Amino acid sequence: MGEVNEKPFKGVCFKKFPNDWELKSAELISLWQANVSNPMWHPFKAEFVDGKLQEVIDKCDSKLKELRSVWGEEVYKAVADALLELNDYNSSGRYVVPKLWNFNEGRKASLKEVINNMIEELKTLKVS
Predict the structure, then answer these.
(1) Planar angle of CA 31, 1, 27, nearest 5 degrees
(2) Torsion angle of alpha carbons 64, 30, 85, 42, nearest 10°?
(3) Where are the domains of the chain?
(4) Which helix or strand (DSSP H or E) is residue 90 part of?
(5) Across all residues in the chain, what is the average pLDDT?
(6) How far, in Å, CA of 81 to CA of 116, rounded?
(7) Which of 26, 34, 36, 68 could form a disulfide linkage to 76, CB 3.0–4.6 angstroms apart?
(8) The pLDDT value given to residue 99
(9) What b/e sequence results for 39-67 when a residue is b if at least 16 CB atoms lie within 10 Å of its CB, and e otherwise?
């Protein structure tokens, strides 16, 4: 949780820099992962959402405004999602937190799914 999704960065860099898009995307991803992990940067504001006070992304933050205008909505969303994940799961340390993930459905894996997966892995080990 809290890791910047690389796919939007690679897509934008492929369009803007067809010759050296891999290097440019790696630089951009590293820069924004460092920004997201920086506990001194707090681009959030408190708002009432469904009657509850919650921290939401401050769309007026200068870094985020520049990111959105220069690199587009998809890249902005990748950074915003990483920020929200870090704020939800590890707001004090702002470092990436490993979570078991169901990639097929794009969500956290349930405990039942994890156990079933482990059982299937053990079965394949016993057969070989």
Answers:
(1) 15
(2) -50
(3) 6-97, 100-128
(4) helix 73-90
(5) 88
(6) 29
(7) 68
(8) 74
(9) eeeebbeeeeeeeeeebebeeebeebeeb
CA–CA distances in Å: residue 110 to residues 71, 87, 101, 107, 113: 34, 21, 8, 9, 5
Tokens standing for 90? 């590890």
Joined tokens for residue 75 = 């890249």
Collapsing DSSP to helix, strand or coil, 47 comes out as strand
Residue 12 and residue 81: Cα distance in Å, rounded?
Answer: 17
Question: How far is Cα of residue 55 from the mean position of the Cα atoms in its chain?
Answer: 17
